[in-house]
Amino acid sequence: MYDLRLLRENLDDLRDRLGPRGKDVAWQELRTLAEDRRNQMVQVEELRHQLKKGSDEVARLKREKQSADYEMAAMKALGESIKEREEQLRLVEEQLAHIALRIPNVPHASVPAGQQPEDNLEVRRWGTPPHLAEPIRTHWDLGEGLGILDFDRAVRMAKARFAVLTGMGARLERALINYMLDVHTTQHGYREVLPPLLVNRVAMTGTGQLPKFEEDLFQVRDEELFLIPTAEVPVTNLHREEILPEERLPVRYTAYTPCFRREAGSYGKDTRGLIRLHQFNKVELVAFAKAEHSYDELERLTSHAEAILQGLDLHYRVVALCTGDMGFSAAKTYDIEVWLPSQQVFREISSCSNFEAFQARRANIRWRPKSGKKDTKSEFVHTLNGSGLAVGRTLVAILENYQQPDGTVAVPKVLQPYMGGIEKIERS
Fold first, then answer.
1. Is there a contact between 207 and 96 (Cβ–Cβ < 8 Å)?
2. Which pTM value belongs to this model?
3. What is the C-alpha separation between 222 and 238, in angstroms, rounded?
4. Residue 427, Ramachandran bin (φ over 0: left; ψ between -120 and 50: alpha; else beta)
5. Which pLDDT value is given to residue 376?
6. Residue 109, domain member (yes or no)
7. pLDDT at 3
8. What domain range is 14 assigned to?
9. Do 196 and 327 sit in the same domain of this protein?
10. Which of 161, 247, 344, 353 could form a cystine bridge with 333, CB 3.0-4.6 A?
11. At what angle do helices 168-186 and 139-146 cross, to 10 degrees?
12. Structural domain total, the chain
């Protein structure tokens, strides 16, 4: 959440910097509440000052052995007035926070302007599309033909937008998870984390999922707990309400988790296959860095996600998202999009973002310089995260890019050791 004083003193500047990105913010109500808060604070401070003066006067009268009954009664009444004013101030701040928590992050100056995905800027490409024999099959046709994907049974046990992987499908998913974790922990320097899959409201608010995106989340009945939409939430909250010493930065974590999303508002999109499910697996990368290093860290983190695709020899491109296509909490985002032959398009397989201090301010995550003195001023860290990668979508890319004319699927060489040496997935 933005600093409340900043909202009062720099509201117009913030509104201008956000532009269309802030179109849903109740700016006028925010202005009124910010001014009301300032007035309430002035009144409370004035009453507290009067209370202090009255208390000093009571103490003087008692020292001089004079009656202080009138003054003490006045102080009691003043104390009640202060409580009432503080409650009014609390209510105003609660309303202010309700709106402030819905203000998106300000885009970095390097983010391309625009409102549609077509305004995103392609940064680079890697590899080339495979030469496949016609007809090119979709991943769901391949998976069902091989007997490794089952959507009908998933619907019977759950509902639409769930899938069952069996046999070599389940093994390929597991191989991908292990490959990604091994690369990120042994080659890229990340520390592996296995976090809770259920988190509380405070954790969701800290990373920006709440309050704005509550309809996209699965909540446990009768509990203030939510199924995580991404490992970003629990892993970022590892250091909530903490001050990290400078020598620990940057801190880098990787985590495999299932992820759960209602996909509200996405009905009619990608209704077939594995692209858009309510439950899917993902390996996440999370980093905490100092402000002056965070954009170098973004490039580093993005390259680590790319390294997985390069190891799998999958054609992809990297695009810088425009201001209107970025997520709520991000200051800058790169999307990595993998080539899907059946659609002849690139599809997102990872989003790598720098949130600057946006999440750290909400979750109160700071760092302190090496001097180590408790009175040394601490600063907010910058947080970053990216998919390294979305496992199901990687499986989709492998099925489609490695398909063979006879309906079998070749196993990428880097995955063969994780598959017991199997080189080809066939119907069993």
1. no
2. 0.92
3. 25
4. beta
5. 77
6. no
7. 80
8. 4-100
9. yes
10. 353
11. 120
12. 2
Catalytic residues: 261, 276, 348, 351, 393
Report the pLDDT averaged over residues 92-103: 93
Apex 320 CA angle, 299 and 358, nearest 5: 70
Average pLDDT over every residue of 49-59: 92
From residue 365, how far is each of 244, 331, 379, 381 by CA, in Å? Answer: 8, 17, 8, 6
Which H or E run contains 79? helix 69-100
Query: Is residue 121 a contact partner of residue 346, using CB atoms and an 8 Å limit?
Result: no
Q: Which residue has the tokens 């608010």?
A: 205
| Whole-number percent of the chain with pLDDT over 70 | 98
Residues 344 and 210 in one domain: yes
With H, G, I as helix, E, B as strand and everything else as coil, classify residue 416: helix
- 3 state DSSP class of 125: strand
Does pLDDT of 264 surpass 70? Answer: no
Q: What type of residue is 236?
A: T
Tell me: the pLDDT tens digits for 356-386?
999 999 999 999 998 756 667 899 999 999 9
- Do 90 and 164 lie in a common domain? no
Cβ–Cβ under 8 Å, residues 47 and 85: yes
Q: Are 245 and 367 in contact (CB under 8 A)?
A: yes
Same domain, 228 and 133: yes
